[in-house]
């Protein structure tokens, strides 16, 4: 069994190293583009390892210090090995596709496969290689660890309004969000991708949250000047229930949505499509014809 307490039983003593000046600069640049926090930062913090931004280690002395901090922590052996496995993926990254430093370590240390899958997924997230990250993080053997943060990053870094990756991650893992930001961003991605799917998603939440999401859906469509007519047609044709119909009208006539330029038009279009407009016209027509047919009162003779 590998003795991970020995520095060079974990890290190779020769060959290319990832924590030279250039490697450190690349990692710091990635951290800045990911809102100042890498997933390995979150892992280390959760395990009580090291100080803020202890990663990447600065040279040989920094690596030795971080290795000792991991060994001295109260984390389980599997968690310690997982952290080392992540670091060794850095070594593979600078040594080329044929490098198997991390794989050899996993075999010698007996690191369970699910920990390898998780850490490799987080490593790809930190490299902004999101497609490869999801091939691991959406694996059925994994609980949805860091689900909020994963969704937030995937939505924020979606290109050309392509939200297929965050939506694929959500549909595969079905996480329960802890942060309202993650829920808002995912719902926004849903609303911009499929108005109907966003409606059904909103119905899976308690009424107070459901109404907020529903109003957010209306806003995302009516206020989107670049969306064209397709999303508007989809919105006004939705199969709303009684509560949603009331929320729709209230939001666009007397609520915050009545300030939107197309609010009145959207309400009127919805009434026409659902038949309410025609019904009102028929009712008014009946009243008018009745009034017309009513005989005029004769004027008294003088």
From TrEMBL:
Lineage: Eukaryota, Fungi, Dikarya, Ascomycota, Pezizomycotina
Keywords: Nucleus
Protein name per the record: Nuclear pore complex assembly-domain-containing protein
GO cellular component: nucleus
Keyword Metal-binding: no
Chief localization: nucleus
Classification via Pfam families: ELYS
Compartment(s) where it occurs, according to its Swiss-Prot or TrEMBL record: Nucleus
Superkingdom of origin: Eukaryota
Domain ELYS-like: 37-255
Region (Disordered): 282-302
InterPro entries linked to this entry: ELYS_dom (IPR025151)
